[in-house]
Amino acid sequence: MTDTKNLTAPAHSEAAAPRKVAVVTGATGGMGREIIADLAGDYHVYALGRSAADLPKSESITPIAIDLVAGLDEGMALPELDRVDVLVHAAARATKYSVEEATPENWRAHMDLNVHAPAEVTRVLLPQLRKAEGTVVFINSGAGRHSYGDNVVYAATKHALYALADGLRISEPGIRVSTVAPGPTDTPMLQGLQDRADAAGIPLLVISADRPHELVGTGASQATEQTGLFAPALRLGVDLPADLTADLGGCAANAAVTGQVRRAVVAATGALSRDPGPA
User: Phi-psi bin for 249: left (phi > 0), alpha (psi -120 to 50), beta?
Assistant: First the structure.
């Protein structure tokens, strides 16, 4: 575990402005790695994950080995930071269960990581977020708006995550709150879900977040640009002005969002790729 007792953002010269600080959970997952790699260009990123050996590390990335679920009972061993400009909740678990299959332990395990942990991490970092007038980004899912007979536990946690984001937005007007909800994504977490979809003959559009298309099984609509799709989508929520209507005007605001969506769709269809990968 990384000692976080007196961990602060790296020092800078008096002439240079302090570098903005981002905290990202789920740092060893496919989405988490992409998000961290993008944010590290202009933030100092504290990358939180359970496996110390798998955490990214560089001059602009500080790895923090932490068990978020254990922290619910033991206290979150988070770095002592003066400010937090961006907090991204990317840690999650997803195992398919129907109502009949799911035990109380299954429900607790999913709720703890997918809902309780982001709520507690946010609560602990609220003073730093308020000071920076920061942004909190929740990684959600299409399952947060729909439910499925064989995946009810995960869907329930993602519905709850929307409620958490909405409540935070209402109670903390000085903090920006965004939700990014990708579709099925080719990360390790998806692999267990993919097996059942394949067995049922359900086609999925799978967007690669952490591997080149050569390593992805056939059946995925794949484009090389998709490896960078999530970071720009998240940065849209982080970087756009808080009041789009005031800063850009209604038409320009719509154009900014629509343009990002178009780029996502083009990447997902492989239109920009010389080699779109397996079809």
Answer: left
**Per-residue pLDDT tens digits for 195-224:** 544 444 444 333 333 333 343 443 333 333
Instruction: Give bridge partners of residue 47 from the DSSP assignment.
Output: 24, 63
Structural Rg of the chain based on CA atoms? 19
CA–CA separation, 235 and 238 (whole Å): 5
pLDDT value of residue 186: 46
As a whole number of angstroms, the distance between CA 64 and CA 85 comes to: 17
Task: Give CA angle at 57 (53, 63), nearest 5°.
Answer: 70
Token pair belonging to 77? 């061993």
* Secondary structure of the chain as H, E, C letters: CCCCCCCCCCCCCCCCCCCEEEEECCCCCHHHHHHHHHHCCCEEEEEEECCHHHCCCECCEEEEECCHHHHHHHCCCCCCCCCCCEEEECCCCCCCCCCCCCCHHHHHHHHHHHHHHHHHHHHHHHHHHHHHCCEEEEECCHHHCCCCCCCHHHHHHHHHHHHHHHHHHHHCCCCEEEEECCCCEECHHHHHHHHHHHHHCCCCCCEECCCCHHHCCCCCCCCHHHHHCHHHHHHHHHHCCCCHHHHHCHHHHHHHHHHHHHHHHHHHHCCCCCCCCCC
Residue among 128, 58, 47 at smallest CA distance from 90: 47
Residue with tokens 């798998």: 54
Please say if the pLDDT value at position 248 is more than 60.
no
Q: Cα 113 from chain centroid? A: 13
Around 152, how many Cα atoms within 13 Å sit in the side-chain half-sphere?
Answer: 10
